[in-house]
Design goal:
7-stranded mixed sheet, 3-stranded antiparallel sheet, 2 domains, Aspartate Aminotransferase, domain 1, 15 helices, binds pyridoxal-5'-phosphate, Aspartate Aminotransferase, domain 2, 38% helix, 403 residues, alpha/beta
């Protein structure tokens, strides 16, 4: 509780958290847009068919991204699982029903070695086997690239179902897409955290990616448990078939034609591998409103507002002699400014790890960015903070640093 304001978490006896760490899932991700919350409350008042809501969301995603179609998932991670399932099974009902067993179908997803990460699990959950290709030479500072085109070509075989690619600032996407498409293989892009800049909504689709997964609960500021995939309509249709509730009787099954072309299918499929990732009507409606607002919002003004807050926090922390302030992403007009705080551990009389740990154990808990904490640096991300919380954060950091 700050300023005698009692939160719903306090009512439950759960410590509230001050989020200066950015859009981190483990502390609730983002500050959802008020218009999304309002839409969710109203969605809770009556019913709609989920497939109709997905078809409507598909239009919003297509408009926002320039893709043929889109689909709302329970986070980007679930989006990757469904994307993999679509690339593995296509519209083959028996292959869908067997996943994650992949006997008799191409089941390898080829990924540049430098793009391997914990979210590979999301692709493997559909039944895919990861095959990595290339090197990690970039981390040595070597001049060679981490992936040569010939390496990718040689890794693609008749067992390849897709290429996986993580949107970062290393390997260019276009040559990967070119090789993949030469071999008739789709490319799945994990762009979960690559907003801002908003131009990335269209960038990977423009570069030819077949399916691109984003989080709905990061920069879009939709419901935290949402994500979305933008891409080819045939693959999005396969995702829908493997995700929607399929307790339907043939003849009464009438999903929206834009998502599922019933006439081209042999009947009603079984529940697919995505059935456990259901998205509720409230989340669907909240997500659509959030994405619309995100598309319309003045990105430069938002970034400027966060830059102002970061600098206000930086100046206030700079008053404390044990803390040295720098700014990350300074001068980059498309990125969020973060405060990087170097702790003089001798003056503080303890490690930065201890300091960050002590802030977390307070009530309310205070989360600062801990990526470089073992190097004596913590960061402050301005996006999750109100003005009152920013003031409180500074007060507590200074108090803890002063011992
Ligand atoms: C956040 C993130 C995810 C997971 O997104 P969710 O929406 O939380 O499921 C996946 N990949 C990357 C690179 C991310 O940053």
């Amino acid at each position: 509780m700050i300023d005698n304001r009692s939160s719903v978490y306090d009512e439950l006896g759960v410590s509230e958290a001050i989020n200066a760490a950015g859009t981190k899932t483990r502390i609730g991700g983002t500050r959802i847009r008020p218009e999304a919350v309002d839409a969710m409350t109203r969605a809770a008042e009556s019913f709609a068919r989920i497939s109709d809501l997905q078809a409507r969301a598909s239009e919003t995603i297509a408009d926002a991204t320039g893709a043929e179609a889109g689909y709302v998932t329970t986070g980007a991670s679930a989006g990757l699982t469904l994307a993999a399932a679509a690339c593995l099974a296509g519209h083959d009902f028996s292959a869908m029903a067997r996943l994650p067993d992949t006997d008799e179908i191409a089941d390898e997803i080829v990924i540049p070695k430098v793009h391997r990460n914990s979210y590979d699990h999301a692709l493997r959950a559909a039944g895919a086997t990861i095959v990595d290709v290339g090197t990690n030479d970039g981390t040595l500072g070597a001049v060679t690239t981490d992936l040569e085109t010939w390496e990718l070509k040689e890794a693609i075989t008749e067992d390849t179902a897709a290429i996986g690619y993580v949107a970062r600032n290393d390997l260019p996407l276009e040559p990967v897409v070119e090789v993949a498409h030469d071999h008739g293989v789709p490319v799945i892009v994990d762009a979960a955290g690559r907003l801002p800049p908003k131009s990335n909504l269209t960038a990977f689709v423009d570069a030819g990616a077949d399916l691109v997964a984003f989080s709905g609960g990061k920069a879009v500021r939709g419901p935290q448990s949402t994500g979305f995939v933008a891409g080819r309509s045939d693959l999005v249709s396969s995702m829908a078939l493997q995700h929607l509730d399929m307790d339907a009787v043939e003849g009464t099954w009438d999903p929206p034609a834009s998502l599922v072309d019933v006439d081209s299918l042999p009947g009603v499929p079984r529940h697919g591998i995505g059935r456990g990732f259901k998205v509720g009507k409230e989340e669907l409606v909240g997500f659509v409103r959030a994405l619309e607002s995100y598309v319309d919002e003045d990105e430069a003004a938002c970034l400027k507002g966060w830059d102002d807050r970061a600098r206000w926090i930086g100046r206030a922390l700079d008053e404390e002699t044990a803390l040295e302030i720098a700014y990350r992403n300074e001068g980059d007009p498309t990125a969020v400014t973060r405060v990087a705080v170097t702790v003089d551990e001798a003056t503080v009389g303890g490690s930065t790890v201890d300091l960050v740990g002590r802030l977390r154990r307070e009530s309310p808990r205070i989360f600062v960015g801990d990526h470089d904490v073992t190097a004596g640096v913590f960061t402050v991300d301005p996006r999750g903070l109100t003005d009152d919380e920013a003031e409180y954060l500074v007060e507590r950091i200074v108090a803890v640093a002063a011992g």
